[in-house]
Amino acid sequence: MACCNGNCASSSTPPAGPRYRRVLWIALVLNAAMFLVEIVGGMRSGSVSLLADAVDFAGDAANYGLSLAVLGMGLRWRARAALVKGLTMGAYGVLVLGKTAWNLAAGDVPEPYTMGAVAILALAVNVAVAVMLYAWREGDANMRSVWLCSRNDAIGNLAVAAAALGVFGTSQAWPDLLVAAIMAALALTAAVTVVRQARQELASLKTAPAAGTVQLVRSRQL
């Protein structure tokens, strides 16, 4: 993905205009609502993967709000926001792994019907958000982090629904715990991707002024 004028967004990516801002607001509201739904569903069913997905919805709502806050700012601030979001996604992955290990030791079996119903509702929400954000998937680190969040959430919802079927079929907790671990791995992978791109964008901003200064000195010498 080539950089142009200090902005590493693809030339085919639409600008972050009013349409993108509107999509982020819709995504924020939907994610905040689904956080509440999944918290209740996770508590009622005893599902680790559902609770993990609820925490993910809360983190995404905060990330969309952060993206809206820096939307009109320069690339430096957008890259810094992406760096914060990447680190948050990484922390979420570690948290889910810890909760998975805890429930593995406890041996509790979740209730699959609530798991499945809430997972399907969450999938519908996340697919809708992912479709709305698809046009900006190759943007700068901030845009890309938003896209990766929505993509990972849709994948996670499918996995939770599959876990519900697994728990129903086996009457054991391991499908739920396995999916929770996979969701944690997805979060950690996305975090590495976003943090790497954000650091590259920040590094390019540091070298750009220096290159401009050298060019100015040479022109004066001539």
From TrEMBL:
InterPro entries: Cation_efflux_TM, Cation_efflux_TMD_sf, CDF/SLC30A. Residues 24-202 form the Cation efflux protein transmembrane domain. GO terms for molecular function: zinc ion transmembrane transporter activity. The keyword Transit peptide does not apply. It is a multi-pass membrane protein. GO terms for cellular component: plasma membrane. Keywords: Ion transport, Membrane, Transmembrane, Transmembrane helix, Transport, Zinc, Zinc transport. The chain crosses the membrane at residues 23-41, 82-102, 114-134, 154-171, 177-195. Pfam families: Cation_efflux. Gene3D superfamilies: Cation efflux protein transmembrane domain (1.20.1510.10). PANTHER family: CATION EFFLUX PROTEIN/ ZINC TRANSPORTER, RE54080P-RELATED. This is Co/Zn/Cd efflux system component.
